[in-house]
Amino acid sequence: MADIGIFFGTDTGTTRKIAKMIHKQLGEDLADKPLNINRVDIDTLSSYKMLILGTPTLGEGQLPGLAADCQAESWDEFLPQLDDADLSGIKVALYGLGDQVNYSSEFVDGLGELYDAICETGAELVGEWPADGYEFDDSAALLDNGKFAGLVLDNDNQSELHSERLAGWLEQIKAEFGV
Ligand SMILES: Cc1cc2nc3c(=O)[nH]c(=O)nc-3n(C[C@H](O)[C@H](O)[C@H](O)COP(=O)(O)O)c2cc1C
């Protein structure tokens, strides 16, 4: 088992594709193969030293899941397991997918919801990301310091920036993870 676990929620597969890119760039020695969050339980997550968790925002600023009209269960159904979880001692980095043009007032809100839930578990959050280069009206993923709670990728409007953003963020979180 590697030190880093990668878990994602998705409806149409983009967040899975990004998880695979992250895994490829980190390599087998550092990170295990990404898994859909609807196929694991909290014990699987808490067995890692470090976690990378990804989510799209769906519905109206929601986490993916049946309530957001997704095809399968996802983060929304997993969230209750985080309620009683103790992830202290684990470092967690988050990434979120969203669409800043069509959902400008609720851009990557799901990332903000996931951040709040993970904060409650006592885990150490890393991977904050500057909000420069995105145009939107509002986002629940913005922290008090003006940064996003994790890496933000807009596959609908800025997919050409994925490689550069991913490379920069992975360098950053590797330093924060100490790997
Ligand atoms: C029905 C629907 C609702 C969406 N709602 C939001 C939203 O509220 N905020 C946002 O930033 N993006 C929203 N998006 C954009 C998705 O987050 C984006 O397309 C993402 O890449 C999808 O990821 P997936 O392929 O992993 O499901 C929505 C997309 C769809 C199709």
TrEMBL record:
Family label: Belongs to the flavodoxin family.
Cofactor(s) this protein cannot do without: FMN
One Pfam family, short name: Flavodoxin_1
Purpose: Low-potential electron donor to a number of redox enzymes.
Residues covered by the Flavodoxin-like domain: 4-174
Protein name (record): Flavodoxin
Domain of life assignment: Bacteria
Aminoacyl-tRNA synthetase is among the record's keywords: no
Organism: Agarivorans gilvus
Keywords for this protein: Electron transport, Flavoprotein, FMN, Nitrogen fixation, Transport
